[in-house]
Amino acid sequence: MGVVRVAAIQMTSGSDVAANESAIFRLVEAASDLGATYIQVPEYCTYWGPRSGYDAAAQTLDDGFVRQVGLMAKGRGITVHLGSMLEPAPQGRVFNTSVVVGPHGEVTAVYRKVHLFDARPPGGVTYFESEFISAGSEMQVVRVGEMNLGLSICFDVRFAELYRALVLAGANALAVPAAFSAQTGPAHWEVMVRARAIENHAFVIAATQVGTTAEGLATHGHSMIVGPWGEVIIESAVDGEDVLVADLDLSEVTERRAQIEVLNLRRPDVYRGDVGISDGQ
After folding, report:
1. 181: DSSP letter
2. Number of H helices and number of E strands within the chain?
3. Residue among 195, 198, 211, 204 at smallest CA distance from 235
4. Which CATH number belongs to the domain containing residue 91 in this structure?
5. Contact, 208 vs 220, CB < 8 A?
6. Is 272 inside a domain boundary?
7. From CA 100, how far away is CA 66, in angstroms rounded?
8. Residue 5: C-alpha distances to residues 30, 33, 71, 241, 244 (Å)
9. 43 catalytic per annotation
10. Is 131 exposed, middle or buried (CB count within 10 Å of its CB: 0-12, 13-18, 19+)?
11. 115 belongs to a structural domain
């Protein structure tokens, strides 16, 4: 397997959709100029603002913005991964939707966030995505050159079983675009991103939102790209926009999986059985 140059873009999106879209084009161009052929932007890349603005910000996948991204991707021969955007859903709700646009300008994969962020973090803002957002119900692996990319979004990173299923379906790299909370990020973000890489011996690409919006939505930042041994290849250390670029040698996935054969040594026959519970008193 070959080497692929990838980019994780860190953004500070807000409630101005036009401004966010302009920043996406500018930052994707910058990553492409650095030679990246797969470029990932964060969760809520086109709108990160009050829930009252969700309906106006939601766009179908054949709206002008996605078509414009397709034209850019085709013109530059790159894959652009819109980490997530708001998409209209039935009954007046929205999906939190990840869209991968391929180098021929077409949408090659769509993933709607399965695990919605319903949480009461200590010292933070109580947030319930499920009040306005409909959960997806399908997993997705997409071929990007020689990468088999398993798709996920932010809060999904807390559910290891999702990533194991993606890897068993063939993923050798995992995408985790995020708008990770500033309250939980310092303790949880790096640990979980690296854990998903280590337990599956897969590359992890994680583009994030950073900073605090005018409405007080605070995100952790620290976009990163992690190798299949769990090492952080590159991580953002800035509090604003950033473009992280790394060359991923996909043969390392095969090498690491041969060194510690976690996938072959699994015991699903045991996992499906009953769990013994003993009284240790």
Report:
1. B
2. 7, 17
3. 204
4. 3.60.110.10
5. yes
6. no
7. 10
8. 13, 12, 21, 19, 10
9. yes
10. exposed
11. yes
CA 134, 218, 192, 253 torsion-angle sign: positive
Active site residue 235: no
pLDDT at 4: 97
Say yes or no to pLDDT of 123 above 90.
Answer: no
Q: What angle do CA 244, 246, 251 make, to 5 degrees?
A: 150
The reply to whether 276 falls in a domain is no
Provide CB contacts within 8 A for 161, sequence distance 6+.
none
> Cα 219 to chain center, whole Å?
15
Residue 130 token pair: 């499920």
What are the structure tokens assigned to 153, written together?
């979004």
**pLDDT above 80 for 280:** no
To the query of whether residue 154 is one of the catalytic residues in this protein, the response is: yes
Residue 239 lies in a domain: yes
The encoded tokens of residue 23 equal 């920043």
Residue 124 pLDDT > 70: no
Q: Which of 43, 87, 129, 252 is catalytic?
A: 43
Active-site position among 21, 45, 87, 154:
154
User: Quick one: tokens of 114?
Assistant: 């399965």
Structural domain range at position 106 = 3-262
Amino acid letter, residue 237: A
Query: What is the count of structural domains for the chain?
Result: 1
Task: Provide the pLDDT confidence category of residue 281 given band limits of 50, 70 and 90.
Answer: confident
Kindly name the residue from 21, 45, 87, 113 that is annotated as catalytic: 113
Which residues lie below 8 Å from residue 93, measured CB to CB, with a gap of 6+? 132, 133, 134
End-to-end CA distance of the chain: give it in Å, rounded. Answer: 55
The burial class, CB within 10 Å (0-12 / 13-18 / 19+), for 79 is buried
pTM of the model: 0.96
Please enumerate in sequence order all residues whose Cβ is within 8 A of that of 261, keeping only pairs 6 or more positions apart, or say none.
Answer: none
